[in-house]
Amino acid sequence: MQVYHPNNKYAFWESHFGWPGVRVIMIPGFLWTGQSVDGRTGKVGNSLMQLDALAFGAHPDDVELSCAGTLIKLHCRGYKTGVISLTRGELGTRGSAKIRAEEFQQAAEIMGLSTHTILDIPDGNIEANWENKIKVICKIRAHKPKIVLAPFWEDRHPDHGHTSHLVREAAFLAGLKRIETNQEVHRPYRVIYYPCRFEFRPSFIVDITEFHDRKMKAIQAYKSQFHNPEKGKYGEEETNVSRAEFLEAILTRAKQYGSHIGVSYGEPFLVREPLRLDDPVASFGPESLQGFL
Ligand SMILES: [Zn+2]
What is the CA(103)–ligand 1 centre distance, in A? Predict the structure, then answer.
């Protein structure tokens, strides 16, 4: 029987030798006895946190730049949130994979995430291939998020577009029980897209006014990447995102989207499918008239 193990990089073969709950994994030249298999259910032990919202980014800092305000807002409302970066961002001009991992950790604490993970997909080469789909499927099944956030599928950076396709496909496939990973199947209710460089006409905008300062703190945890007084420690080479103007642009974008809904700061999102609305009268109250443009 071929199964894909949620905690390992590659698919491998496993055999059962008749002892309940004991299995031996065989891959060429290597023997591993699974420790986390539930003897009663046969499922791989899942100590991982069940989430309400799980955001995927191609690189550490993608999610912070685009939708940290919404994740912080959800956390403050009692929801469990998480972020997964598909790569370590090792191709970045400034900093290093190790430094970015430390910054990712600090940003996660600021955002109040219940879980945060960096996967080992190569930076600059994110493919929607089967191996990567299995990695994302395993994470979705482990955390069982109600909603998944992913980058908009059109973007200047190829990794962002590929991440969008990979996450969308994996979110669907995670619900197919014949893709066996020794986990319960789970399909999120909705994949919601956030913009990176390229923008879209949003399906909805979230008011993040109360959480905008905290969002900027999460972004500024990435001291190696963005403008800050210490950035000289991480290299002399200036990049597009290390200039002061970049953070101003992030702030300006939040103000612009906030202006559409009559608040100080907002984050835009896109969904592919029509949104259900059962009571248009109740849904469109006086706040619908708000907006500065
Ligand atoms: Zn990125």
Answer: 14
Task: Report how far ligand 1's centroid is from the alpha carbon of 57 (Å).
Answer: 7
226: its two tokens:
């963005």
Distance (angstroms) between ligand 1 centre and the Cα of 61 equals: 7
C-alpha distances out from residue 280 to 119, 134, 269, 285, Å: 42, 40, 20, 9
3 pLDDT band, cuts 50/70/90, is: low
- Distance separating alpha carbons of residues 287 and 51, to the nearest angstrom: 30
**pLDDT tens, position by position, 161-193:** 999 999 999 999 999 999 999 999 999 999 999
Asked: is 53-268 a CATH 3.40.50.10320 domain? The reply is yes
- Strand residue runs (E) in the chain: 2-3, 12-16, 23-27, 30-33, 53-57, 81-85, 115-118, 147-151, 190-194, 204-207, 266-269
pLDDT tens, 6-61? 654 433 333 333 333 333 333 332 222 222 333 333 344 344 689 999 999 999 99
Domain boundary assignment for the chain: 2-33, 53-268
Q: On the CB side of 75, how many CA atoms lie within 13 Å of its CA?
A: 24
